[in-house]
Design a protein that fits this description.
The complex is a heterodimer. By secondary structure, chain A is of the alpha/beta class. Chain A has helices spanning 23-29, 49-60, 80-93, 122-139, 161-172, 180-190, 194-200, 231-244, 260-268, 277-282; strands at 14-17, 36-39, 63-66, 98-101, 104-107, 110-116, 143-146, 175-179, 206-212, 215-216, 221-222, 248-252. In chain A, 39% of the residues lie in helices and 18% in strands. In chain B, helix 2 (45-52) crosses helix 3, helix 4 (85-91) crosses helix 5 and helix 6 (121-127) packs antiparallel against helix 7. The N and C termini of chain B lie far apart (84 Å). Classes of the chains: A alpha/beta, B mainly alpha.
Chain lengths: 283, 304
């Protein structure tokens, strides 16, 4: 449901992450791409090349901001300095929504720069929802929270991950960035049926979907974003689209990044699952 | 019948879990890139992990926590090495890793961005010579230049000075600022030349996302060595058209710019620049005019 209040009522198709190795290709060749997702933190700067490139991209393309260190699940409140920088960037990009992860990552001012998993407790539900509301109010933009891949589970958990996600987004009244690769990775690491997760998510809140590849080790899977999307993840994507309708979709490819054309081709495989805009509007 | 000990359970509060896990995640790895078997109080780390993390049929609690411990260090060391490839090439990878862990334990990231991670490295090296001996002076020069390069890459630019405004004022009243992205360094080693050698194998990267790596990042090792020069070089690290450059300066030009940056008037800065010079007043004046033409063209001067 791409054009919802969680996406600023904008309809987005299939985008890819804006990455440094592709800068020159994009600026020189100006390929047709529905939209780019940027990592906000890479552009929350005061000058230099990153912002200059971003400004040139913004002249031609729609850009949506995705963050990696707001840490909605932190016990502490969101960092005000971070929020101010983020808001300044949203004014520059005119992003219709902002996304970040439902996780934690810093304690007492020390940052791990990782997306650490939440204990699925009622206390964590309340805390995360409060933090998301604060961010949403400060930014004056819709926020979508992304489910993360995880490699550990807590004794303290009182519910499943999807129950936790649903409780948080209802209390925060925010959107969901549904990462179907993360669902798959976690399902393999924690032994659950990933379709149960996809089927349980409130479809009306899904603002965006992430697809990506990962790396399988002997005893666990790592979310490495360095491979094409595998068939079981496409299957989850198909099911998510059946439930959510046409939804803004983004391929993440962050390591061992191939050519722009290869990444874009991989992303566009999603179009075969997406209803066209007219069909979606009629529905 | 032997009495069974109930499993250790940690406080289930969100703050307690996050503090405990953060501590575990940020503990240095062993030389074999594994989590330490003993916890900070000497008890088994496996027991601590088991107190708050569930095992599954393939991994113990300790092994599951170890994944995060490894990812933390591989990510942060990878970023640090990317920023200080020159220091790494001076010390060699093993000693650089040792230095990096010592530094990052003392100055872990306190920002949402990894950009500032190495800001305090030059000061740290000044106080921890054993970590870099016998290459301390070269490593320190290299760290200063590599941090200055980060500053030059993305620090803000102020509106450049309109040269016409200089002509309308007397030198005693002119105060100028240098661009925030410009750093001036006096160095004992030809670090600019050494870093050019490293450039061939460099490729800029950025934080793409928090996707994890399957193993620590490694580049082909490069070794950089240089003896101290008979006289120091004076280097400006700056940017032009969004690219970072090094520019060697005469001592007098360096002194003048440093004085301007410290808030001296143009007249005062010129006086300090030529205080020990044998140049005549005419020669000094010609030099200053030439320098200002270059600096204005490069955009180094901003309104005071």
């Amino acid at each position: 449901m791409s054009a919802t209040r969680f996406t600023g009522h904008a309809d987005y198709g299939v985008g890819i992450g804006l990455r440094i190795p592709h800068y020159q290709h994009i600026l020189d060749r100006r390929p047709g791409v529905d939209w780019f997702e940027i990592i906000s933190e890479n552009y929350m700067l005061d000058g230099g090349q990153p912002l200059a490139v971003l400004d040139r991209i913004l002249e031609r393309y729609r850009v949506v901001q995705h963050g990696v260190s707001m840490y909605f699940g932190n016990f502490a409140r969101p960092n005000r300095g971070h929020l101010k920088k983020l808001k300044a960037l949203t004014r520059r990009t005119c992003t219709p929504w902002v996304s970040d992860h439902l996780c934690w990552g810093s304690v007492d001012g020390r940052y791990t720069h990782d997306l650490l998993p939440m204990p699925y407790t009622w206390e964590a539900v309340e805390k995360a929802a409060l933090n998301i509301r604060e961010v949403q109010d400060f930014l004056e933009l819709p926020v979508a929270v992304e489910n993360v891949s995880s490699y550990a589970e807590f004794h303290a958990s009182e519910m499943s991950e999807w129950e936790f996600l649903n409780e948080v987004v209802e209390r925060a009244d925010c959107g969901i960035l549904l990462d179907v690769n993360n669902i798959y990775v976690s399902s393999q690491n924690h032994t659950f049926d990933p379709l149960d997760y996809v089927n349980a998510v409130p479809a009306a809140r899904v603002a965006q979907i992430h697809i990506a590849g990962h790396t399988r080790h002997e005893r666990y899977i790592l979310d490495t974003h360095d491979h094409p999307v595998i068939p079981p993840v496409w299957k989850l994507y198909k099911r998510a689209i059946e439930r959510c309708g046409r939804t803004a979709t983004l391929l993440e490819w962050d390591d061992r990044i191939p050519s722009f054309d290869e990444v874009h081709r991989e992303a566009l495989k999603a179009t075969k699952y997406l209803p066209d805009e007219k069909a979606n509007a009629a529905a | 019948m032997k009495k069974r000990t109930p499993p250790r359970r940690t406080d289930t509060g969100l703050d307690a879990i996050q503090r405990l896990m953060a501590r575990a995640v940020m503990r240095p790895l062993t030389s074999g890139q594994r989590s330490q078997r003993a916890w900070v109080d000497g008890s088994p780390s496996a027991e601590i992990a088991g107190s708050f993390i569930k095992p599954n049929d393939r991994l113990s609690s300790f092994e599951r926590l170890q994944i995060y411990n490894q990812q933390y260090w591989w990510r942060i060391l990878g970023s640090f090495q990317e920023d200080f490839r020159g220091v790494c090439a001076v010390l060699g990878e093993r000693r650089f890793d040792h230095l990096a862990v010592a530094y990052l334990e003392a100055h872990g990231s306190t920002s949402w961005s990894l950009r500032n991670l190495g800001q305090l490295l030059p000061a740290f090296l000044e106080n921890h010579h054993a970590l870099t001996a016998p290459h301390t002076a070269l490593a320190l020069d290299m760290a200063r230049v590599e941090w200055a390069r980060i500053v030059a890459f993305d620090d803000p630019a102020l509106p450049p000075l309109d040269p016409a405004t200089l002509a309308r004022k007397t030198p005693a009243t002119i105060r100028l600022r240098l661009q925030p992205y410009l750093t001036l360094l006096a160095l004992a080693h030809p670090v600019d030349a050494l870093l050019r050698k490293l450039r061939q194998s460099s490729a800029e990267t950025g934080t793409a996302s928090n996707a994890v790596g399957a193993s620590p990042r490694r580049r082909r090792p490069v070794v950089l060595r240089a003896n101290a020069l008979p006289d120091p070089i004076h280097l400006a690290i700056h940017r032009v058209d969004l690219s970072v450059y090094f520019k060697r300066l005469d001592l007098e030009a360096f002194t003048l710019l440093t004085a301007l940056n410290a808030g001296a008037s143009l007249e005062g800065a010129c006086a300090s620049a030529f205080a020990k010079s044998s140049a005549s007043a005419g020669e000094a004046s010609a030099k200053v005019r030439e320098w200002f033409a270059t600096w204005t063209e490069l955009g180094w001067l901003a309104k005071g």
